[in-house]
Amino acid sequence: MNNRKRLVVLGGGESGVGAAILGKDKGMEVFLSDFGQIPERYRQQLEAEGIEWEQGQHTLERILSADEVVKSPGIPPTAPVMKAIAEKGIPVISEIEMAGRFTDAKMVCITGSNGKTTTTLLTYHILREAGINVGLAGNVGRSLALQVARTPHDVYVIELSSFQLENMYEFKANIAVMLNITPDHLDRYDYKMDNYVKAKFRIIRNLTSEDAFIFWQDDPTIQRQLEQIATEARLFPFAEHEEHQSHAWVDDAGELVFDTSETSLKMPRAELSLNGLHNLYNSMAAGLSACLLDIKKEDIRRALSDFEGVEHRLEPAGTVDGVRYINDSKATNVNSCWYALESMPKGTVLILGGKDKGNDYSEIEPLVREKVKAIVCMGKNNSKLISYFGGIVDQIRDTHSLDEAMAACHEIARPGDTVLLSPCCASFDLFSSYEDRGRQFKQAVAEMK
């Protein structure tokens, strides 16, 4: 009789294949199923490991024989296969939850509607440059499960989306970071903000008095939620200027202050490698995490001043005929665009559009009125954008491809202007991903020179 645990993994991407390999290494009987097509490199990996897999279908008989299911974060709970699993009462967990069972490494976990990737990479950069044996996982980097299985580290820095947090139960962060919460992915959460907030706050599940919760002090949604729930964790709020109980802020002399029981330090804000208010908050969150891990002051200062930033996030794409082009393709929600506009000059030509996720554009309306001379809509259906912004900017263009959008920008922009791609929307109507959108934009700028 076979008493091995039967593990079914749904999704053949980075997280799914990593979970399958970890399951195999732990002696489980593993089957991986992907309703779509598994990328070639992952198929080769599964073959090399001798793990059974299927693509283009879900064989329910195999799936419903599982003792436990690891689900890709991209599969919604409303998918037919998930409904069938729920009816059978089979436990469903995330790859992060599974990986956490097999490591006692320290976990620095970062979430938020905006700034997650920058803060995650910056925190990883600080720890790596300080000589820590650190791994990068979650939404960026390699699968946490695969690293736990094959290349274990002492510390992991993990970017966690609300989707990944949904199926985490016993997993525990040592340092949990919440950058901000603004409306995003509401189509996944029945268009109820409260459901999205609760998903985000799963990051503080299981925190003890020895753990830390770092968060932006002036986020009203975070503050409201903290009034309704209890956590044993030590709290480390940060703010632009010192407030009651702040642990990171900028003082009147322009010095960035970090104040924790483990490490306290100051450095001139002007020395930060990342500019803009949003990046100040990202630097504060990363710096506080490093302080709590007792990283040397000089290592923190140096890493905060030489970090090179994130592709597709306020990334200079070049200057053509005196017009500056900025790639902010990673701005897939309205609040992310707000941060981009906050750092832009007047005379900005703004490219918006893509797959709308239930967006409320009122948040950026004041900045659009102040700084934007024209909006170029780039998507299959731009009617919502045109309806909202039509009377707000002097010029608005309806385009349905990158080529059309770039031609409109070239026609509108004058020397000294800035063209900002900060779409507020997902990319999937015209592009395969926000990375694809950003790279095509950069290529188009290069070809204009």
Helix proportion:
25-40%
What is the residue-averaged pLDDT? 93
How many beta-strand runs? 20
Structural class: alpha/beta
Would you identify the CATH architecture of the largest domain?
3-Layer(aba) Sandwich
Gyration radius, in Å: 23 Å
CATH topology of the largest domain, which one? UDP-N-acetylmuramoyl-L-alanine:D-glutamate ligase
Report the β-strand fraction as a percent range.
15-25%
For CATH, the homologous superfamily of the largest domain is named as Mur-like, catalytic domain
Please tell me what the overall shape is: globular
Low-pLDDT runs of 5+ residues are none
Query: Would you state the CATH class of the largest domain?
Result: Alpha Beta
Query: What's the story with the biggest beta sheet?
Result: 6 strands, parallel
Number of self-contained structural domains: 3
How would you write the strand order of the largest sheet?
7-8-6-9-10-11
Write the layout of secondary structure elements.
Layout: E1 6-10, H1 14-25, E2 29-34, H2 40-49, E3 52-55, H3 60-63, E4 68-71, H4 80-88, E5 92-93, H5 95-100, E6 106-111, H6 116-129, E7 134-138, H7 144-150, E8 155-159, H8 162-165, E9 175-178, H9 193-200, E10 212-216, H10 220-228, E11 234-238, E12 248-250, E13 255-259, E14 264-268, H11 277-292, H12 297-306, E15 315-320, E16 323-327, H13 334-342, E17 348-352, H14 365-371, E18 372-378, H15 383-389, E19 395-399, H16 402-412, E20 418-421, H17 434-448
Parallel strand pairs: 1-2, 1-4, 2-3, 4-5, 6-8, 6-9, 7-8, 9-10, 10-11, 16-20, 17-18, 17-20, 18-19
Antiparallel strand pairs: 12-13, 13-14, 15-16
Helix pairs in contact: 1-2, 1-7, 6-11, 6-12
InterPro entries: Mur-like_cat_sf, Mur_ligase_C, Mur_ligase_C_dom_sf, Mur_ligase_cen, MurD
Domain Mur ligase central: 110-288
Function: Cell wall formation. Catalyzes the addition of glutamate to the nucleotide precursor UDP-N-acetylmuramoyl-L-alanine (UMA).
